[in-house]
Design brief:
The complex is a heterotrimer of chains A (300), B (309) and C (519).
Chain A: H1 2-34, H2 36-53, H3 55-58, H4 90-126, H5 128-142, H6 146-157, H7 161-171, H8 173-187, H9 191-199, H10 203-214, H11 216-239, H12 251-258, H13 267-294
Helix pairs in contact in A: 1-13, 2-4, 2-13, 4-5, 4-7, 4-8, 4-11, 4-13, 5-8, 6-7, 7-11, 8-11, 9-10, 11-12, 11-13, 12-13
Chain B: H1 2-29, H2 34-39, H3 45-55, H4 61-74, H5 88-123, H6 128-142, H7 145-159, H8 171-201, H9 204-211, H10 216-246, H11 248-253, H12 259-269, H13 272-300, H14 302-307
Helix pairs in contact in B: 1-13, 5-6, 5-8, 5-10, 5-13, 6-8, 7-8, 8-10, 9-10, 10-13, 12-13
Chain C: H1 2-25, E1 45-50, H2 65-74, E2 79-81, E3 87-89, E4 92-97, E5 102-107, H3 121-133, H4 138-141, E6 150-153, E7 156-160, H5 168-172, H6 182-188, E8 202-208, E9 212-217, E10 230-235, H7 239-247, E11 253-254, H8 262-267, E12 271-286, H9 296-305, H10 308-315, E13 321-322, H11 345-354, E14 362-367, H12 371-384, E15 390-395, H13 398-407, E16 412-418, H14 424-432, H15 449-460, H16 464-481, E17 484-497, E18 500-501, E19 517-518
Parallel strand pairs in C: 1-10, 1-11, 14-15, 14-16
Antiparallel strand pairs in C: 2-3, 4-5, 5-7, 6-7, 8-9, 9-10, 11-17, 12-16, 12-17, 13-17, 18-19
Classes of the chains: A mainly alpha (300), B mainly alpha (309), C alpha+beta (519).
Chain lengths: 300, 309, 519
Amino acid sequence: MTDQLNVNMSNEDIKKKSTKKRSQYLEVWRRLKQNKSAMVGLLIIIILILSAILAPFIAPYGIDDQDLLNTLQTPSKDHWMGTDNFGRDIFSRIVYGSIISLQVGFISVGIAMIVGGSLGAIAGYYGGKLDNLIMRMMDILLAIPSILLAISIVAALGHGLKNVMIAVGISSIPSYARIVRASVLTLKDQEFVEAARAVGTNNTRIILKHIIPNSMAPIIVQATLGVAGAILSAAGLSFIGLGIQLPTPEWGAMLSSGRQFIRDYPHMTAFPGLAIMITIFGLNLLGDGLRDALDPRLKN
Amino acid sequence: MHKYIFRRLLMLIPVIIGVTFIIFTMMYFTPGDPAKIMLGESAPHTEVAKLREELGLNDPFFVQFGRYVKNAVIHQDIGRSYATKRPVLEMIITRFPSTLKLAALGVLVAVLIGIPTGIISATKQYSLFDNIAMVIALLGVSMPNFWQGLMGILIFSVYLGWLPSSGFNTPAHWILPALTIGTSTAAIITRMTRSSMLEVIRQDYIRTARSKGQVESKVIIRHALKNALIPIITVVGLQFGYLLGGAVLTESIFAVPGVGRLMVDSIKARDFPVVQGGVLFIAITFSFVNLIVDILYAFVDPRIRSQYK
Amino acid sequence: MKKKKIAVLLSFILILALFATGCGNNQSAPEGDSGPGTPTDKKDVLIVGQGADAVSLDPHATNDQPSSRISKQIYETLVTQNEEMELQPALAESWEPIDDLTFEFKLKQGVKFHNGEPFTSKDVKFTLLRGLDSPHIGHIVGSIDPNSIEIIDDYTIRISTKDPFAPLLAHLAHTATAILNEKAVTEFGDDYGQHPVGTGPYKFDSWVNGDRVELVRFDDYHGKAPAIGKVIFRNIPENTNRTIELETGGIDIAYEIPPTDVSRVESNPDLVLQRNMNLSTTYLGFNCNKEHFKDVRVRQAINYAVNMEAIVKSVYKGVGAPSKGPLGPNVWASNQNLTPYEFNVEKAKKLMAEAGYADGFKTNIWTNDNQQRMDIAEIVQNQLKAINIDAEVKVVEWGAFLDGTTAGEHDIFILGWVTVTGDPDYGLYPLFHSSQHGAGGNRSFYVNEKVDALLDQGRTSVDPAVREKAYIEVQQIIKDEAPWVFTWSGEDLAGVRSNVKGFKQHPAGHHKVYTVYFE
């Protein structure tokens, strides 16, 4: 009988929780919709994702259609963004490149955010020896500047898209850990956490239900910048010759290979650069909008 | 507080050991034989074998690692470069001033631009200034550093002829690299300052301070900025540390003879003692920067200070 | 109180910056900052920009181009090759063969090292023995028999090889055999590479690691004193930047002008572009041990299928020339009468069909991360589609590249070779002799007994006419059997400001700067 009651109660509890959660997300979405610049950002991201999915239909030429008689053409009707040093259509390569760049950006940030975020949350919340251990590990990683760490990892693993993503991801783990830990530190002594603890909520629950949602704002800001950073890091790795395999049309690699022509044919660097900028611009607009929408204190 | 600092310094020891081990392992398993790379495509294999023996590359991992640690601890000797035969420490020390200078100037530029812009943007959220500043900050983070550097050279060295394009020995040489690094770092600091200020401005005590009739600028500086500083310090500290070892691209574009470039060249050449020593050096420097950042935390936030006892 | 704390924080950052700035001041050199348009009455400093810093100025500790280019000004060799690759006396006034194995050298008298020590035959013996011990330059001096070096008197020395070795003199002209001073070497020990002492026109002054090496005129030089008092070699890794520095007057000579900047330098009235074919060649090698490439028809088909003119035009922007055969035009006895493979896809298809590969096959092309080689790989990959070959480009890190190609893991690879001695033995023996498979240099694992015999003959015969005939024939066979796709013969491009006179590029790449003067 008492068991029965318990089950009922918790069922109800779950139901209540989930409706509350749903309405919470709806609320965020409602607020996000009112933010014009966030919508512009979202639009940019959607266009990018669509161009990634529909690349074969959008691009007038293939990834690697060389035309050695038409190299380094400036933009024209046939080639909207001109051609590169192999006579390849830059517009087509940029369209295909959206797949690669979005992959590099999101996967490496995903790796960093999940691993680094959880480590940071655990360290900040539990404190003491565990905090010490995790943060000392992070210090070891952090003590090696991320680009240098990424370079070493790529050197050890070899070139290629996958390895670049892993390298960039691992190298940015510590910054997430630190940022999450810092915000957890300021949160954990706040009243609502104390209250939850007093009610007897267990730690995992407190972290997942109270701490993480309330420290989302800095994580989102960091993550949106992080996607940008990941794309730029990949470009940087290409710049020093440790990047992505040819002839993959990765924007950073395209930009790097255009640098030797920058004085005569700036379009070779300008368009991939623009593609990167617009992507990051969109991500940031959206990230900022999300941040405002997620912040409960903005309600009133 | 002193006790805390001492404890943190003690903690440097495991960090150093950890870094040494990680990098040593990574380099050991990195494909590519330093002897082969040094000798190039024209070397007969007898010469490669001879050089491998000379460099001690035929020994098993733990023998090599043990020898390295032993020399480092007992003789304070972190070895000589495979390629140049110079003592690693000397190589790094001669290059470090350039890197430090570049990082400090870059962060200085960034802080001078970033923090005021961020504060104004936050206090005048959604104003014209805010919008323009944020767009510029976005462009700043979106622009690849090396592209920006090349454009700077194009404009200021080629077209205008105002500034030299490479080298690092006079103040005129510092301007372009420092601006290249500073502006993109400024973008990051601006955004962090703004978002952190916005967070704080909405807190109750700010409203209280305002309602008490305090002057707005006083509210912003005395109450808001002080509380918003923690994340800002984190970012500035991280950026400074990052620049100490990571200004690789800028260093190579402007031919700054710094540590970052030394590291990349050495990784490419599989000059392991230099990589090893360099990363260790950067790690120690960076750990000090971290320690200072943490002490500054305590400085601005008494709640955290109390934890340091 | 709280304001104060923020002030402290900000000033801390400021102090850090100022401290850092102060740190560097003591190392900044007064010279070399001849920024854009600083006019001086009499210019006495020559600044040369190159793409990498020297590794070591000990000729036995390295064998890289940036180091050799500086060593060339500090040291001298027994004999030397002029810009036309003709042998000329240097530290040795004259020489004559004693028998099949031995040469006797008469040394120049009254020569001084930079540390004041007189130059004698003892130094020659010391240098050669030390060089033989070095793993870096064994391929240059390895033929010398260490037990045979015989000092006749202070200014006469005999040097023998283990086996008859015709190209010995060309090897002794290489900068790696530059003569060192025993006292200086012993004095500096492990640090000798940073304290070089030679007999050359310039002596070492200082070295800012990663940035610049400075040399000053050696007043006791035995030859014609250089006109310019000081030479600075600056390290400017970024190609674009090196050209800009040249344009803005930051440097007087820029080595390795990138192809993209050719027209820019040419059209600038303040600059002169010097173009000279050098001794380097770039090639695609087949792994002749792999199934497809055992068949000579497949190798020829690929030679026909690749449009080399287009590659040279698009990758090298017209710099250099398509290779006719395995040797560049500047190498002695280079067979320039070879008919290169034309671009003919039909012929290629026919050969593929004859070999039974009408439907093509899958293969891979290895390259390291050299920009031009990667570009070539991409183009070749693309052009091979026409004969149904599906090639994957593998960009492999340099060390792994050497390892892999030594072990024969590759199908096709792209590599370069510099025949530094200007003698065909150096340009053919390691690359095509069957005893040199893998690490020896023959990474295409090519075997041909006739070629082996001719290469042996060229190496051992003392009669230049016999040698020449052997090498001409070898090149014909190699071209026909096509273990390579013959790709590109290199060209050196140097940009020089128009007031710089007396500079001439050397095909081997180590250009003299001690003949330079300002006008």
